Amino acid sequence: MANVPPMPLEEAQERLLALVEPLPMQHVDIEGSIGRYLAEGLVARRTQPAADLSAMDGYAVTGDDMAGPWSVVGESAAGHPYPGEVASGQAIRISTGAVLPVGAEAVILQEDLARDDGRITLTGEPPEPKHKHIRRSGLDFVAGRELLAAGTLIGPAQAALALAAGHKHMPVCRKPRITVIDSGDELATDPETCEPHQIPASNGTMLLSMARTLPVTAERSGPIPDTLDALISAFDAAHRADVIVTSGGASVGEHDLVRPALEAWGATLDFWRVAIKPGKPILVARRERPEGTQIVIGLPGNPVSSFVTAYHFLLPVLRRLLGARHALPMSIVTRLGAPMRANGGRREFVRGSWDGQCVVPHSIQDSGALSALAASNVLIDRQAHAPQGEPGEEARVFLIENGGIA
Ligand SMILES: Nc1nc2c(c(=O)[nH]1)N[C@H]1C(S)=C(S)[C@@H](COP(=O)(O)OP(=O)(O)OC[C@H]3O[C@@H](n4cnc5c(N)ncnc54)[C@H](O)[C@@H]3O)O[C@H]1N2
Ligand code: MOO
């Protein structure tokens, strides 16, 4: 398999996403649905506004005579509609959000009127057109209309819309269960007592927290030693996970045991190696069980490689399981604020800082350099063989905070 050329990124992402389907639907209360994705379209159960309302504080009049004066015969306050009908020459005191009385066709702002006891006279301009300050019934939406499509990310505005549309619950997909396994004999669990021949185990926590930017149930197992038995036991222990993520041991060395362990465990390798830098040795395998397909994503151990591949593969597969319409991160175009060297033969995701105007690559691009990754907020997408870049040129970047825009 080492002879098979690494796969282009988009092809590999497509292959991975084709292996999974959104998880089964469940209904949760609106607050619990924030950050999840609609499992089916959301249809309005009511019309909003349900009646014609005043959009301002003032007086409601019939509109046949806009010169006045008028005699004030009652009030319509928010939540307390006027029970009768307004007639020509009469006015109803009305507040913002209150129901327009029967017979009223105009609301005159209180700033444009003078009130003397029960009488109001025009001092300013009447509304033009007459219905200017009226919110018609159904202006926002009518009952039966689909307001949000399946796959929409539920945020504060979508939650508020669902409530306004008469919903107490939202249809969402079950949360994916994910287990992160990091492996390597050199990994020290306690960073304070790490020996020179060791390295603090940092990928497990990094990957767990990347996954937790999405609504998942995530746990970690490891770090575990570089042995087949330890890996197989860790896979066995993760039998309930929808997605297992490993970090390390994905390359070609004799201690790189993730592939043989997966095969021994009964998983089938789907692909290995993608033409990106960092992250080339990523592998994807699957295991069929009665409860559904289990996906294993084997990320390369270099910390930045793990991060970049989790960004481009792990988060998208979690979004797909969650029922998201857009599983893949989207890039935006900005401009270079500094020169960039010509790229080699692998598409590279260069760590950089974007200030809203332009992007500057970091000087250290080693795939183990966490200092540059932690100082970055974007990955600059450099195509294979891209020529040297000059300041002012367009550059495509992926925002990395919270898994980017998806
Ligand atoms: N002869 C070749 N050697 C390598 C190739 C290759 O094609 N031919 N590919 C290189 C590339 S590219 C990468 S990326 C790495 C990935 O290797 P592995 O996935 O096998 O990762 P390890 O060797 O286990 O570790 C690499 C590096 O990362 C550190 N590491 C591992 N796990 C953690 C962790 N949980 N927390 C922090 N740091 C971790 C580990 O100590 C190593 O320094 O292979 C190249 N080699
Ligand atoms: O692909 Mo490796 O991830 O370049 O360091």
TrEMBL record:
Cofactor dependence: Mg(2+)
Its UniProt entry gives the catalysed reaction(s) as:
adenylyl-molybdopterin + molybdate = Mo-molybdopterin + AMP + H(+)
Q: Does the keyword Methyltransferase apply?
A: no
Involved pathway(s): Cofactor biosynthesis; molybdopterin biosynthesis
Function of the molecule: Catalyzes the insertion of molybdate into adenylated molybdopterin with the concomitant release of AMP.
Q: Which family does it belong to?
A: Belongs to the MoeA family.
Q: What is this protein called?
A: Molybdopterin molybdenumtransferase
Origin species, per record, is Novosphingobium mangrovi (ex Huang et al. 2023)
